[in-house]
Amino acid sequence: MTDQLTGTTQAVGLRYFAAARAALGRAEETIAVPPGATVADVVGRVAAATPAAEPVLARCSVLLDGRRAAPSDVVPDGATLDLLPPFAGG
């Protein structure tokens, strides 16, 4: 995957927890995204690659390098996103 204007990509690590891990069938991965990709872009790319996981991913909270992220936050090269579905318990 390359940015069509510059031909460059950046690596983003993804870690999936609980229902997101179960829906995707993996605990983590690294994907290539174009520079300037937002949290929503990255999550959308994962959902598009695994459509059955989209309902779970749509409800996830996302941490960007350990801090709560907004969908519009730009993901820097080498960042890690944690996808945390809602959970119940005490």
UniProtKB/TrEMBL annotation:
SUPFAM superfamilies: MoaD/ThiS (SSF54285). Pfam families: ThiS. This is MoaD/ThiS family protein. It comes from Isoptericola peretonis.
